[in-house]
Amino acid sequence: MMGTFNFQEFLSAFIVLFAVIDIIGSIPIILDLKQKGRSVNAVKATGIAFALLLGFFYVGDGMLRLFQVDIASFAVAGAFVIFLMSLEMILDVEIFKNTGPIKEATLVPLVFPLLAGAGAFTTLLSLRAEYAPLNIVLALIVNMVWVYIVLRLTDRIERLLGKGGIYVIRKFFGIILLAISARLFTANLTSLIEQFQAMK
């Protein structure tokens, strides 16, 4: 069941995914890759990232059932991941380190972990505990369109916003993520407590 379209849910899911994927904050990394001669294919990167995220959105639920983990429990765990990501953005610290062996730029680090990393995977399933799948998928599609545009126009966007502008945007969405992680945690923790009490 995809559910019915709800603009408020769509907008909330879009903002959360926009903040987690953080393609604007990744512009300096993308420019650095280009300066090192590591070409970035916008179509390939966007397509692969979208396929990975959409696939995990649908298959991830089945994987959770396989390990006997419900969505509310996963959402609580996801809230912690989002909380740590928000700290990265607000405090300028590196918590999630990319130590993978693959050196091809379009796939690593662009697709994974920048676009389709653990944070995005966790966030998608965490959102599923709150919103109808239709609104989340639409929000993901619009985010991927935005990602494609940014990848195509990276140089122009950096000139337009400047390093200061990118820095301010990153801080702002860090605070948004912090608030979202708190809401996800409290809402789903309450659900888990109610389930536990019902089992007594």
Which structural class best describes the helix and strand composition?
A: mainly alpha
Order of helices and strands: HHHHHHHH
Shape call: globular
Strand fraction: under 5%
- Mean pLDDT across residues: 84
In summary, what is this structure?
Belongs to the UPF0056 (MarC) family. By secondary structure, the chain is mainly α. The protein is built from eight helices and no strands.
Structural account:
This protein has helices at residues 7-21, 27-35, 42-66, 71-91, 106-115, 118-128, 133-152, 154-199. It has one domain. The longest helix has 46 residues, at 154-199. It starts with 6 loop residues before the first helix and ends with a helix. It is globular and about 60 Å long. The mean pLDDT is 84. It has 200 residues and is mostly helical. The protein is built from eight helices and no strands. It holds the Pfam family MarC. Belongs to the UPF0056 (MarC) family. It comes from Phocaeicola coprophilus.
List keywords for this structure.
200 residues
SSE topology:
Elements: H1 7-21, H2 27-35, H3 42-66, H4 71-91, H5 106-115, H6 118-128, H7 133-152, H8 154-199
Helix pairs in contact: 1-6, 1-7, 2-8, 3-5, 3-6, 3-7, 4-6, 4-8
